[in-house]
Amino acid sequence: MITYALYFAFTAVGLSLLLAMWRLLIGPDVGDRVLALDTLAINAVALIVLYGIYAQTQTYFEAALLIAMLGFVSTVAYARFVLRRDVIE
Amino acid sequence: MSHWIIAPVILPAMMAAFIVLVVRFHPLLQRVFSLAGTLAILAVAAGLYWQTSDGTILLYQLGDWAAPFGIVLVADRLSALFVLLTAVLAVPVLLYAMGSGWDMRGRHFHALFQFQLMGILGAFLTGDAFNLFVFFEVLLIASYGLMIHSGGARRFRVGVQYVVYNLLGSTLFLFALGTIYAETGTLNMADLAQRVAALPVDDTAGVRVAAVMLLMVFAVKAAILPLHFWLPAAYAAAPAPVAALFAVMTKVGAYAIIRFFTLIFPPDLAITQGLFDSWLLPAALVTLTLGMLGILGARRLDALVAFAVVGSMGMLMTSISVFTPAGIAAALYYAVHSTLATAALFLLVGVVEDRRAGNALGYDPAPPLPGAALVAGFFFAAAIAMAGLPPLSGFVGKLLILDATMADPRMAWVWAVVLSTSLIAVIGFSRAGSAIFWKAHAPDTAAVATMAEDAPPTPALPMVAIGGLIAMLALVTVFAGPLQRNFAATAAQLFAPGPYISVVLDTPGRTITHDADSEEEAH
Amino acid sequence: MSAAAEIFVSALIVIGAVFTLVGSWGLVKLDAPMSRLHAPTKAGTLGVGSVLMASMCYAFIWRDGSAHELLITAFLFVTAPVSAMLIAKVAIFRRTNVQELPPPPTDTTWATHDTGERAIKSSSASENRGGNTATPG
Amino acid sequence: MSLFLIVALPFLGALLPGLMIRAGRNACGGTTFFVTLTAFAGLMTHVPAVMAGEVLTARLDWVPALGLNANFFLDGLGLFFASLILGIGLLIIAYARFYLSREDDMGEFYTYLLLFQGAMVGIVLCDNILMLLVFWELTSLSSFLLIGYWKHLPEGRQGARMALIVTGMGGLAMIGGMLILGDIAGSYDLSVILEHRDRIQASPYYLPALLLILLGAFTKSAQFPFHFWLPHAMAAPTPVSAYLHSATMVKAGLFLMARLWPVLSGTEAWFIIVTGIGLVTMVIGAVVALFKNDLKALLAFSTVSHLGLITMLLGTGTAFGAMAAVFHILNHACFKAALFMTAGIIDHEAGTRDITRLGGLRRLMPVTFVIAALASLSMAGIPLLNGFLSKEMMLEEAAHTVLFNSALLVPVLATVGALFSAAYSFRYIAHVFFGSQQDNANGQPHDPGFGMWAPPAVLVVLVVAIGVAPFLAEPLVRTVTAAVLGDAAAMPDAHLKIWHGLTPALTMSAIAVTGGMLLLIAFAPLARAWAVAGPPAAKAIFDAIIGAIIALSRTITERLHDGAMTRYAAIFSVTVVAVAGHAWITGNAPAPAREMLPVEPLPLAGWLLLVVATLVLVWQHRNRFLALVLMGVVGLMISVGFAYLSAPDLALTQLSVEVVTVILLLLALNFLPRETPMESAGGRRLRDGIIAAAVGLGAGALVYTILLGDFAAQTISAYHLENAYKGGGGTNVVNVILVDFRGYDTFGEIIVLGIAALVIYATTEALLSGPVRARLLNRPLENVAGDAHPMMMVVVTRLMMPLVLMVGVYIFLRGHNEPGGGFIAGLVVAIAVVMQYMASGYAWASGRQRVPYHGIIGTGVLVAGLTGIGAWFFGAPFLTSAFGYFRIPPFEKFELATAMGFDLGVFLCVVGAVMLSLDSFAQMARRSGIAASEYDIDIDPSRDHALDTDKAEG
Amino acid sequence: MELLVASSVGVLTAAGIYLVLRLRTFPVIVGTALLSYAVNVFLFASGRLAVNQPPVLRDGVTAYTDPLPQALVLTAIVISFGMTAVVVIVALGAYLSSQDDHIDDGPGRDDVGEEAQP
Amino acid sequence: MPRKLIWRLFPHPLLTLLLTLVWCLLVNGFSSGTVAFGLILGTVIPILTAAYWPRRPVIRKPLRVLEYILIVLWDIIVANVQVAIIVVFKRNADMASNWVAIPLELRTPEAIAILAGTITLTPGTVSADLSDEGHALLVHALDAPDPDAVRDAIKSRYERRLKEIFE
Ligand code: NA
Ligand code: NA
Fold first, then answer.
1. Residue among D662, D793, D841 minimizing CB distance to A89
2. Hey, which end of chain A has fewer CB within 10 Å, N or C?
């Protein structure tokens, strides 16, 4: 049962990735793109965690943690760039 | 366990770190430590050269792991020669940098200088293909810093190109290494030699691609046409002592070609037949021609010397690309000679740039140089050496190369190109030299008077450094006989790689003792 | 036990997946820039949260247990509002006039549009207060 | 005296003039004279032995493998030339002492002169043709310095370059010829080569060798068509002209032809080339000489003519011809050097060398007149002077020479040459010393002091002595001729005497002298005709050729190296594809051996994302910000891909590196234009697209075949998997490889990172200490959003930073056994600090940061290095690791490994490098007139509230 | 799967090369970054692909993925990072000192900024 | 003064506890050794980062924190469903997006940040900006025909509680 749930989830998350990518590509504004990238990262976290359940391993925990962390940092960086041009002024 | 073999790598690394950490605010101390470190490297290099001069092959197993599982350093005649050459070059270059004040025109010169030495020496000593990549990168990134040392629009513009081009080269290197590993499952050079030789004949495409990709990577370093484009502008724009140090950087490429294509892909290896016989020698000859044409076509002295480097690399590769013991021996002699000669020329360019008024390195008339006689004399000597005229080492090197290519079916081409390009170089150098040193303004007295007042006292150390290089050229000339014997022995060692391979692969490494660690199971 | 647990974990997985999908769907579907911000910052967060809970429960039920998924969840919950706020500021900065916004009840204007003297003065580095490595020897 | 010493003396002596000039001009000249005298005396000690037919040798190995050795031998020919060189050298040195003015650097002059002298002596005494080449080229170089001695004269500089280029070209050709010759003979020693006449002349390589060697000889001896450099060399001070360009250097080519005469002469090729060229040179030189108005130019062309004469004699290949050649070399050296010196005297005294401005000097300068007249008449071939004797021999030889099946060609041309020779000789006397007294520039010229006229006088004494009593010279000439002939020909039965009877030669001689006089009478109209119809100046042709070569070089060089990096990169790409493609096609590709992994939908989606992001990135790359966002997607997808393909360490690293990279690029983009303009045309984009596609296809195909094939042998990583835990103490094999098996790579890698940071720092400093600084400080303010440091961000960062640091520590500590390690930890910690910077601003955050980043980097390298060095104290190699398990309550058993020390170095390096880079960007971003925020939050009502409270209370 | 990886390498390489051939420094830098992604994947693939076999030793597990290429890629990633950082700063220096971010250097592009702006 | 010393050593006692917990979560274990090591790190790291957290707020009613967290969690779950429904089923044209300006009584940055975060996490609303003096919060509501109702809900449900906790 869990396997089927996982397959469903993989499909849904895969679809989410593609949707987010679509938004990233069509924009229209930079804000939309940054938001889309942020969403991509969060979806990637979901994906990796799902894969961890699927593969029955803890090996990918750090990857998920890091994506969550770094996704945030890069979103901030991109947004700061648009807002202030200087990321670390 | 002798640790001397790793000293040329560790010493500059630690010295650079120390300089950055402790004495980065003290110019004098930086100089003292940098020079002391370089002299120590020279001593160690001389020791290594002496140790290997009887054919001994020194092995150093890093982390005590046996090859091919760990990385090893190997010092044979070839490595030791280039290590010594680098160290010999480094001392006068460093003295020049200090004497001319170049080292203080920007930040971190000495740290970068030491790191650069570390990269070059590490590349010469490593016995591992991937580690060679790492040290290529060390020497490259240090060279980026040194090339743009003290800044300036020109240097930055050229610097970008230099960096990007070499990034492409590094990328290609990784592609090549990936292919090598995928085909053979190893990275150690001696092990590669064995495994490549044992590859089945029906599976050669991959290793052939890897071999030529490696050749091209090294050709970029060695500035062989058409992969040389990064060099002329970069060397011309680099600060004088940096360009002089770079004289040995191109030799890293030549060294790697010699090493890989005598050890791993020797000329008689069946599966790599026909890879580059048809085009490597012509490419070298075209490189030689183009370099020499550049000497004649240059509008500035720094560009002239940069093209002289290209030309000398063409000459060197001409000799290497016949892949015979005589050719390699001649190439080694020429490598030593051309390194010292181009370095001397680059330092002279620096002196001219510092002392000559106006468009200092252009050929337009300018007021006479202060102290012109000595500078001109040194330039004359270095130019003679570079153009391959007697009595200096360039002539001997040229004769050796002509002699080595005599048996080659393409001998007529080689000779025609070598001899006619020498003439072009003579024309180029004589034009430049007479324009810079002879064709002065009639010194107008007022200007001379102001110059005499304004001109800072011309420091002696740069001239000592250049004089040292010229003196070394003279020594290389006088002792051409013994040197040639040594290089012939080096070539012979390269063409009989059995001892190298067995020293590297048959030396046992550490014994795993924790196997019996009864207290601990894996999990 | 096992069946219920399986259902529970599966449900969590499916819920998470659905919310993730809804978040991304909203990102594409919604047409106003500010509106788009809502979908992923919440649905997405909850979606990943559910998946993480599923992973945790799975580990507690079938393996030797694991709670570090909590960390990721907490992390996402703490950071998501900041991301959202910055992206909202981007939208305001690039797309929205001051007039379109309701005036702040007490103060002069909204911070993003506050590009006056105060904003500049208080935000940029000065000549003499550079970094700690400003001028070595 | 040892031959080595005779050759070495001038070179060693060359060190002295520069020093002695401080003691005065006499000391300088005297020293130089003494050095030469010593060498000359040393040479003379060997005269009896050589005259007795002995050959002295001296041998020293230099580069034996090459056959290049310092071997010398002294026979009659060598002795003859060496005596000429050193003997005339003595006279020239004496003459130059008085010739040079006070402004001239006499030390420099004598230094060059002695260098030249040594090189010449080397040539003539050398027994090794490679060594001979060394001396040969040395004469070119030293003559370059001597011709260009007056650096302020453009003619001097140009003449010097021309001489160097022409003779240098010949020298280079000769290198080839000599190598071939030595290869044929099996030795580069002359004494051996000279014994192999038959082998050499039978070799298929004889002709190339001959041509190349003759090219060297002809250029040096100014044979047509390479003769033109010699007149331009006359810009040199006159002693140089007298010494190099009449007596010695130009004779080097003749010497070489004479030296190799036994093995090279006697063939059809030799005869036609050498005789033909000699003859042409003789006639052309003589004709041109007549119409030159510059005294030295006249003499120079006359020299060309006489050199042609001697060449012609050597070309005939007969013993008599050789003898005549030897004799004329001697005679020409005497009268021509004397003539040059008189020309120098005239120039010196009258202030001009222009014949048209000179005249009537016979009364003003009687001594000079006598010397010049005697030398000139000798040159003209008047009896009782030495020139007559050898000219008679030449005409005699010419009369018997059949060239191109014509018995008349050589005698007629020889007579014409002699006729013009007589004419210009007479002109030298008539137009300079006779006739009306012209303006003569300096007013009242008079004879110079003894020091200046004595040297030519000595030579003229010889001219007369030999002319009157030729038998005096006969032993010498016979000895020398014997040396020239070697075993190739018998000594001719001829004697040097004034009267041979009414021979055809005498008739030809008479025609020549008479004709010469007639020509001089008709000189004025002839000169006008010459001015109109004369041949073009060779210099113009030469300059045009050199100019064309330079222009061509410049065009090629500058077209190729025009700084078009994009083309360089395109060439690089095409070359790689072509060469690798060739290697692939010519090799054998194996059939697929591995089964492919199945394609699941999820990786497919990831792949789609990656590919789409990449393609859109390329398509939209001109929008730089979008490009960076898409780069973020690519990086994210690759990380996820690594995770999927069982490489968690890679995923973590790629991810963190990618974020830091993007931040760096964003920081840079702050200063750069935000758009890339559309600049390249469609064709160009198409070209680039094709190149890119080819490279991409190549890379993809290569990796695809790799993935389908298997390793040919077991990979070394099997050992790593086997021993990572047992020998390296870690279960994360990747990490154990990084810090242990291949820790040395990692050591290099962190140094790369450290250097990167230093470079970034140094670059920033360089930028900020230059003109860029002002521009940066005063760059216009852009329209940016307010609230730089939003409260929410700051508050969240306050919480997040400790958490992230915690994660960093965690990743660091577990790296050895689980995915992680010092590098990723370093990036995570750096990112924590970056977060703080982004939240509260660089100024505020770095103000609370007390550790210098340089120090962190330096410490990192030192820690890593010292950890490695630590092994030395246990007798183990660098980076040998050790580990152990410890138990200290309340902690569980834990592992400590030296590799962790190393990893700590890595960690520090990474942190320091990233921070130093950011720091540098922050330095650049400063603006003038804008103060840093004192606070970490821009809008903080609690702060205002506190301030209000303070105000209310205060 | 192999085809996906191979085509990714191909696409990334082609994209990288195309951008490297552009006329401004910024796309060139982005291009080199893409190239380093490509080569990292390539290097990784030289150990062949494996799914769900991480190189971390576990009891009772015998099949591991090849750890060596991973270690090599890690080294390569770090080095490329350093290189990218340097090329960024050098390009920035070039732009700031001559107000021109063309990567091609030709006649008329000489030291514009330094002389023009005192 | 020992009290001062303790303050120095544990600048953020709560943070220390939190970090210790985080460490245990990271290591995925709660053994004594882990906790001890976590405590060490939890002590050291706040000392290192203390400079970056000036003017630490005082939590006056720690128990209300728990209540607040539970309320927010519940709100997140319930309202997420609502938003999901809106997103999936409501046409774009029918949505009544609105800006809402919320005057703030809170003055502590931490409290305001928590409020803003809560607003964002609870569905239908996103905190977008602060006023230039920090006395009002700009909130965007996805589907709120009546902005004032949203404002009042936020003030009463969240701000009131935060005010009690922090001020
Ligand atoms: Na330079
Ligand atoms: Na790279």
1. D841
2. N
